[in-house]
Amino acid sequence: xxxxxxxxxxxxxxxxxxxxxxxxxxxxxxxxxxxxxxxxxxxxxxxxxxxxxxxxxxxxxxxxxxxxxxxxxxxxxxxxxxxxxxxxxxxxxxxxxxxxxxxxxxxxxxxxxxxxxxxxxxxxxxxxxxxxxxxxxxxxxxxxxxxxxxxxxxxxxxxxxxxxxxxxxxxxxxxxxxxxxxxxxxxxxxxxxxxxxxxxxxxx
Length: 204
Prior knowledge:
4-stranded mixed sheet, single chain, 4 strands, alpha+beta, globular
């Protein structure tokens, strides 16, 4: 049996998609978390001075997208053929673009300024993307972004929009009923629900 060790801060952040893939497929792994103040003692041991890092039988793999994609392909969540895999990759890349856009919001301490930045981000970046996403979900007609079954792309959208709605309210996706249904579907998958209920409580 392969031994997986996922090394990341005690946060959801960029390590959460890999965790969701593993939990969804009920794959045993070591979820190694550490606090921010402990980072200096682990940094030198990582391939590029960044986390997350996935150790596969002791061999390191860095970059969050590469890690989650590898796990999805190893465990049946990447898509049923090369076209579906490429489509799933495309949607996950979109999520990583959105993640980058949330940093100014998360780290803004002034509540009024944070609200302004959030509204600008939603109007100029998120909402135009959600319009395209709704079209895809309607066109695909299966309730999933790609193909006829869940892929890591669906987990990626859940991973991004679940904390967004927790933090800023359901109005973030109120105008995207198909995405909202997808997020709710993922949240109610038994193995995902169990993980979410038992994972460490963190702000991010």
